[in-house]
């Protein structure tokens, strides 16, 4: 006879869970992982950002993927990852600190696709983090480094080492999981095995995030480039598998569907990397540039399709500006003008198709009887993405249109466009708060966030650096400092400090509060910074040690200036 152990309702895990090793079905609360670390049991400081969670159970409680109620007919569509269910959830990879995977579940994974929210991608990510050791260790490393980002700027920053149960600091533990993931990938990777390729791509994606958060930007780019090369090799593998046995159709279709999700994320990061690296050329840029936009009578069918197209166009704009940094269009320079005009036409076509799609959707939602929509036709998340796509388009159009022989003076003619971009950025921030409230998440203004995707920061930097209107610049600084966030290698605090220093230099070199520039014309061309770059050094994720090596060159000068800045 089997002796049954009853649940004694003890939080967070009862004696039944502790004695049998099962996963507790209840008491999992998203906000529980945000309790203060230094408070005694039952007492928590709401202002403290250090992450802790109960650690009385060796198995982390994670959501289980459920099977679909009915099997889809063969050949109708690719099976959804939501139909996968692990027969075993791996034990916690860190039995001393089981909050590590809790944090990844409730925070890291939710913000990895901050600007392109996808439940399908989140489900796939969590499924492999639950069941595949290499991905699980990579997720643990990301969670530990992400915790350091959450602690950034907190008065309790020093508690990161203190509150890890096995005596290791967050950085040391992250490195331990990082190396374990590498060893597992090297040991188990098979070049022509689809599942092995999928795991390797997921680990590349995770490692890119880990190194971006840790400030190891060169390593992050190596992981991204490796993932891109592996993704490009998949076409031949997929073609070979397509000639396999008919009995394997479901497995092939499911695997291809999973691979396509990961490849989509890798390619998006590859296209967006041109936003912060001058010498970066996206692997898909030439291939993507040959694919025309949908004809006007067809139009876009989804926001994701519109996003894919505008990402390519923005990459083309940045690629032209980066490669032609020392070439300025003149009457005889027909090549650059021709490329510039071609991209501008494509941007205008995109804008027409985008406006047409959104207006049709809004009209349909307003005429549908019994609609429970807000009257605007889209959810809060969709409206966030709409505003962000509009901002990307307008910033790229302005940045390319102002590319002319007058160099930095050209930007003065585009003040209305810069002001419109700033308004879109402000609207996006408000909508993001509304979206967080709608979906029951913590408002982003109350926490530090990270995403490997590009969102607001490059656009705000271009506005702050190139629009010389003093009011616009100070509004940009306010938005950048609204909350701590990282988008790939872009850091909001670092970007704000760089923009602030540019303003100080251009508005006669004094402290920002002492400057008295009243309009753009007060800044002559010779005092305008034309090219600026910087390297952000992070030492142990301690804010006081973060420094910025800044380099710049004035519009009418050839000399490079260097300076070291420190974050307060």
UniProtKB/TrEMBL annotation:
InterPro entries: Transcr_Regulatory_Proteins, Zn2-C6_fun-type_DNA-bd_sf. The keyword Manganese does not apply. Keywords: DNA-binding, Metal-binding, Nucleus, Transcription, Transcription regulation, Zinc. It comes from the Eukaryota. Residues 64-84 are annotated as: Disordered. GO terms for molecular function: DNA binding; DNA-binding transcription factor activity, RNA polymerase II-specific; zinc ion binding. SUPFAM superfamilies: Zn2/Cys6 DNA-binding domain (SSF57701). PANTHER family: ASPERCRYPTIN BIOSYNTHESIS CLUSTER-SPECIFIC TRANSCRIPTION REGULATOR ATNN-RELATED (PTHR36206:SF12). This is Zn(2)-C6 fungal-type domain-containing protein. The lineage of its organism: Eukaryota, Fungi, Dikarya, Ascomycota, Pezizomycotina.
